[in-house]
Every structure is written in C-alpha cells, then in structure tokens.
C-alpha cells in the first residue's frame, strides 16, 4: 500500500515575521510564483511514491504550508501541535479540523505545553521509538505526554544550534533503521537542509545533496531525488517540512543490526 502524505499548497505563503534565523532579511525577497512552482515539483515528486492529501492554506497563516508541523501521527491518533510562537498558533484549529474530518482520533496538548508535531517528533523506521527534539520549539515535558498518548518509547534529543531549531532540520530516520543526521550540524549538507528529507521506500527526496552524501546513500541502497526548494529555505524549511506522513503503523519489524549513521560531522 502506498504511504499517505499531507501537503498544503503555499497559496498564502510569505515571510513576514522572523521566528528562526533563516527568515532574517528574507521578508521582501520571496518570489511567490517560484515558491509555487517549487512546491508543485515537490508535490509531483512525492506523488510518484505516495498518495498526497491536501489541506487548504488558510489566509493570514503563511507558514501553514509546512505541514510537518501540523501534528504527529501514529496509527489512528494525531497529536496536534501547540506552537511556541503566536505567529503560528492560528494554524492549530485548521489542522485539528482536518484530522478530525479525516477520521483520526485528535489529541491536543494543554495550552502550556509547546509541541511542534513532526518537525520535532520523528518515528524510527526500524523500532518502536519516537525521536523527539527539544530546546527551541518543543518542551522537554512533551516527552512524557507523547509516551502516554502514542504508547511508544520517546528518546529526547536536545537541540543547541538556533539554525537547527526543529529536529527535522538536522535528523532524518530512514527505512531499515538508518539515521541521516549531523551531530555538529555545521556541514554544507546540513546548511542546505539535506537532512530535511522525505524518505519513501528506497527513495530520498531532498533540496540538495553533496556528491559524497548521494554516494553514501546509494551505497546503502537509497536513490536520491533532488527538488530545489530555495524559496522555502527563506522561511527555514525544505522537503520534509512541506510534508506529513499520515500512515504510521504501531508495529514495525525490528532490524537491530542495520543501525548506522549515514553522515556524521565530516
Ligand atoms: N518558518 C517556519 C517556522 O519557523 C518553518 C517551519 C519549518 N518546518 C519544519 N518542520 N522544520 O516555524
């Protein structure tokens, strides 16, 4: 069965506030037509490997196109985000309504618990484990909450570099238990958000990849598909941020021997 992924066409996408370092000075530089064609290309590429569901972009909430931040989904439960910044809080009811309509059991964190969905919560692909980034957007207390609500072991990881403010900007679990990540997150690949990848089967869709990263991935049986997403980098996001996986089973076959970082700090 094809994976299901949620996306949101950037009809009202703009950079009009600064809530991460990538957005600084980008306010007037964004080209909406180019953003739209970049998003269309990503949509087309993802659609080759997955069924894409769409949510309408609500006016006044420019970052809503980054559906990774809508929620974390496991089986039929969707834990909706509670954004740290008020600039994004207005997205919450739209996402909650979409998941409710789509038949998910919707869980909302209490008002004082920041949690930014699959931007900071990434399910491992080989064991029942949820990697959770905290320190910038998501509260460390979200770990217990997610453990209870999703019935999965949570491994919290502290983020320290403000440029890598969401876990998915520097860490990506791949099929078979591989982890694509940058411990120091200063490398060129990290700065082009190569870790902000969409992995579907043996395909890894990303904004950019160095030759050495493409080789490392291909040596482990992955194919890279590049889709330039420069206009979304102006808001601090790329391929993974623009998608949300909707079918996450509770049980996956454990393959403990294949855990190996693909890319460590060079
Ligand atoms: N401008 C958005 C923010 O700072 C970008 C979100 C990117 N999403 C992600 N999952 N990393 O919240």
Structure, described:
With about 270 residues, this protein is of the alpha/beta class. The protein has one domain (about 5-245): L-arginine/glycine Amidinotransferase, Chain A, CATH 3.75.10.10. About 20% of the residues lie in helices and about 20% in strands. The chain has 7 helices and 15 strands. The strands form 5 sheets. It has a 3-stranded mixed beta sheet with strand order 2-1-14, with helices on one face. A hairpin with a 2-residue loop joins strand 11 (about 200) and strand 12 (about 205). The model has no long low-confidence stretch (mean pLDDT about 90). Bound molecules: arginine (ARG). Arginine binds near residues 66, 69 and 119.
Radius of gyration: 17 Å
Describe the largest sheet: 3 strands, mixed
Structural class: alpha/beta
- CATH class, anyone? Alpha Beta
Chain-averaged pLDDT:
90
Summarize this structure as a short list of keywords or feature phrases:
3-stranded mixed sheet, 266 residues, L-arginine/glycine Amidinotransferase, Chain A, alpha/beta
């Amino acid at each position: 069965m094809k994976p299901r992924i949620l996306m949101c066409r950037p009809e009202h996408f703009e950079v009009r506030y600064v809530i991460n370092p990538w957005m600084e000075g980008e306010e007037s530089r964004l080209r909406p037509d180019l953003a739209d064609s970049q998003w269309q290309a990503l949509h087309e590429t993802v659609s080759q490997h997955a069924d894409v569901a769409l949510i309408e972009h609500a006016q006044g909430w420019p970052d809503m196109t980054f559906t990774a931040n809508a929620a974390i989904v496991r089986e039929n439960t969707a834990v909706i985000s509670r954004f740290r910044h008020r600039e994004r809080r207005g997205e919450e009811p739209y996402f909650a309504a979409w998941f409710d309509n789509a038949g998910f059991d919707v869980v909302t964190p209490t008002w004082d618990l920041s949690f930014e969905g699959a931007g900071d919560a990434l399910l491992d692909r080989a064991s029942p484990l949820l990697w959770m980034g905290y320190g910038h957007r998501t509260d460390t207390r979200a770990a217990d909450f997610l453990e209870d609500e999703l019935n999965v072991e949570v491994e919290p990881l502290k983020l320290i570099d403000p440029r890598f403010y969401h876990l998915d900007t520097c860490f990506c679990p791949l099929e078979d238990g591989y982890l694509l990540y940058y411990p120091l997150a200063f490398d060129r690949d990290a700065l082009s958000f190569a870790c902000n990848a969409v992995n579907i089967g043996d395909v890894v869709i990303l904004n950019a990849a160095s030759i050495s990263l493409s080789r490392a991935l291909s040596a482990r049986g992955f194919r890279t598909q590049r889709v330039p997403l420069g206009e979304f980098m102006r808001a601090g996001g790329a391929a993974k941020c623009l998608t949300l996986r909707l079918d996450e089973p509770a049980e996956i076959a454990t393959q403990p021997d294949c855990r190996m970082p693909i890319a460590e700090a060079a």
